[in-house]
Amino acid sequence: MSDKQHLPCTPEEAAALMHKLSFDPAPATAEQEAELLASLPPTGSEVMVVRSLRMPTDLDDAVTAAAKDAGVTKTAWIRQAIEIALTMQSDDDQPISRADALRALTLLRPVRRAA
Question: Which InterPro entries does the protein's record reference (predicted)?
Answer without folding.
Answer: Arc_rbn_hlx_hlx, Ribbon_hlx_hlx
